[in-house]
Design a protein that fits this description.
There is one protein chain. The protein is 31% helix and 18% strand. The protein is an alpha+beta fold. The chain folds into 2 domains: 82 residues, no CATH class; 251 residues, no CATH class. Keywords: Iron, Iron-sulfur, Metal-binding.
Length: 397
């Protein structure tokens, strides 16, 4: 039986009394969304949760264990925060473009950006992946007071965990890619509860989308966050993430050896241990790809301030997409301070990257069970679809 304290918490966080469950405008102009019941039905029960972690902490009845996010008790609230901020519900691509960038996109492969480069850190943190620019940029932003702290993925390959890093040393300790879906955004809600602002975060495309939905006011009027909660969003390239079942596979394949580093280049996924390396075919780890990733339309974090990925050509460099003015300012500062080395993106590589991103989108559109605008699939305007097909056809001719 729910006691009075639990009931009070539930009403504050989830938005108050029951409603008809329909979307309604509030006096503040924001939109109330359905609540936990529909989130469970449309997303969790269908295996479409991407484990971003945003709903964890918004609702006392949604918890996480490892990469699993589940509703452990029915709250009974039909309008709540959890549904509104989920990156897999009610996401309109053109509306998000306008909210984040103030205009509609022309490039339907990579989204809106003002520059694309190869970049690498001049001093790489131990364990940093490729050019190490993610760690370098977050560390610089923290040292310069541009952010107050940073939400990152810490731990190691076999035991990743959410981290709120407050010092450059803590940032460096999180260096290196982890390939499972870690619900790091639960730390954002904890930080908001402590009154922190100016937080930087590094996240997958779904996590960037979740934060943008939060910023758009996809919350009940009783629950608001400071406009200054997030100070910087650095998004990662992500074509898919892997489930925690991967850990058992790696443990068996490496006979329990400590894994120092993991990578998934074109030639196939591999790990480095203290005694050597091991590589597999992509098909061998395909069973561990999260189902939600098959519905994901964004592989390059299109609504971040900066997007970072590998080059698929030179392992010592990163691909860097500059998307916002804030992102541009940080990159210029990093270059001026000698933190990053930057060079032009090779002209011959851009069609390769665009083709990979567009192929991902077209696979989503080809899903027989897709439901545009609902249940894991974004809403895509007809004019976006038409232009996307033109650009995709041009790439593949």
């Amino acid at each position: 039986m729910i006691n009075n304290i639990d009931r009070l918490i539930k009403e504050i966080i989830c938005g108050g009394a029951k409603s008809s469950g329909k979307t309604e405008k509030t006096d503040r102009g924001s939109v109330c969304m359905p609540g936990q019941e529909l989130l469970v039905k449309e997303i969790m029960d269908r295996g479409l949760c991407s484990s971003c972690g945003m709903c964890v902490g918004l609702c006392p009845y949604i918890k996480t264990a490892g990469d699993r996010v589940r509703a452990i008790y029915p709250c009974g609230i039909e309008e709540g925060a959890c549904y509104g901020v989920c990156p897999k519900t009610s996401l309109d691509i053109s509306e998000m473009d306008m909210f984040v960038h103030g205009r509609e996109r022309e490039d339907h492969a990579l989204g809106i950006y003002s520059g694309i480069y190869y970049a690498r850190a001049t001093a790489r943190a131990d364990g940093a992946q490729y050019g190490g620019i993610t760690t370098a940029l977050i560390g610089l932003a923290l040292r310069e007071g541009l952010i107050s702290s940073a939400i990152l993925t810490g731990g190691d390959i076999m035991n990743p965990r959410p981290v709120l890093a407050a010092t450059p040393g803590e940032v460096n300790s999180c260096a290196g890619s982890k390939y499972t879906g870690v619900p790091t955004l639960l730390e954002l809600n904890r930080a908001a509860g402590r009154g922190l602002t100016g937080i930087g975060l590094v996240g997958r495309p779904c996590q960037v989308a979740a934060v943008r939905k939060l910023q758009r006011g996809k919350l009940p009027p009783e629950r608001t966050y400071s406009d200054r909660l997030v100070g910087l969003m650095l998004g990662l390239f992500c074509f898919w993430s892997l489930s925690s079942e991967l850990y058992g596979f790696l443990a068996r394949e490496t006979k329990g050896e400590e894994i120092i580093k993991m990578d998934i280049p074109l030639e196939g996924p591999g790990v480095l241990t203290k005694t050597g390396s091991r590589r597999w075919r992509v098909d061998e780890i395909r069973p561990f790809i999260n189902k939600s990733c098959n519905y994901c339309f964004d592989s390059t974090s299109e609504w971040a301030d900066l997007s970072v990925g590998s080059t698929e050509q030179d392992p010592g460099w990163n691909t860097l997409l500059v998307r916002s003015g804030q992102g541009r300012d940080l990159v210029e500062l990093a270059a001026d301070r000698g933190v990053l080395e930057i060079k032009d993106y090779p002209a011959g590589r851009l069609p390769v990257l665009r083709k990979a991103a567009l192929n991902k989108k077209m696979r989503v559109l080809a899903l027989a069970e897709k439901e545009p605008g609902n249940g894991g699939c974004p809403a895509i305007p007809d004019k976006y679809l038409r232009e996307m097909n033109v650009q995709w056809g041009g790439i593949n001719r």
